[in-house]
Amino acid sequence: MNTKQSQNAATSLVAAGTVLSGDITFCKELVIAGTVNGSVICNDQDSSVVKILEGGSFTGEINAPRVEIAGRVDANVTGTDSVSIGASAQVSGVIRFYKLAVSPGAVITGELVTMAEEPQAAVVQVAK
User: Fold this and answer.
1) Residue 47 sits in which domain range?
2) Is 65 helix (H, G, I), strand (E, B) or coil?
3) Which residue, among 120, 65, 113, has the nearest Cα to 93 in the 3D structure?
4) Contact of 15 with 34, CB cutoff 8 Å
5) Residue 92 falls within a domain, yes or no?
6) How does pLDDT run across 58-89, given as a tens digit for each residue?
7) Which of 2, 37, 66, 113 is the most exposed place for a label (fewest CB within 10 A)?
8) Is the dihedral of CA 24, 4, 67, 35 positive or negative?
């Protein structure tokens, strides 16, 4: 394999029929077509994405810049940039996001929480 190509190829796959229990730390792209029970954490890539494909299943916690869901998810999901929920998705849990896209037909049970663009510092005035 070309060295330049192998440095750019950073897609991790949990294939259909595979069952994985545990924590996953990834960079660039994680594609879940099988079943995962655990936590998924992005390893410092601003454009990284977690994709749960149709037929894929995830239970646990996801924290990544972009999250795309087309399968079944029962998790606390944090998309530090965006969360996209496809028409075939069935999602339950707390979803935190800056940007959210939901396709018609998606089923969401739980809580949707918009994260502030920039945390606002509390201003405290001390009386003299």
Assistant:
1) 3-114
2) strand
3) 113
4) yes
5) yes
6) 999 999 999 999 999 999 999 999 999 999 99
7) 2
8) negative
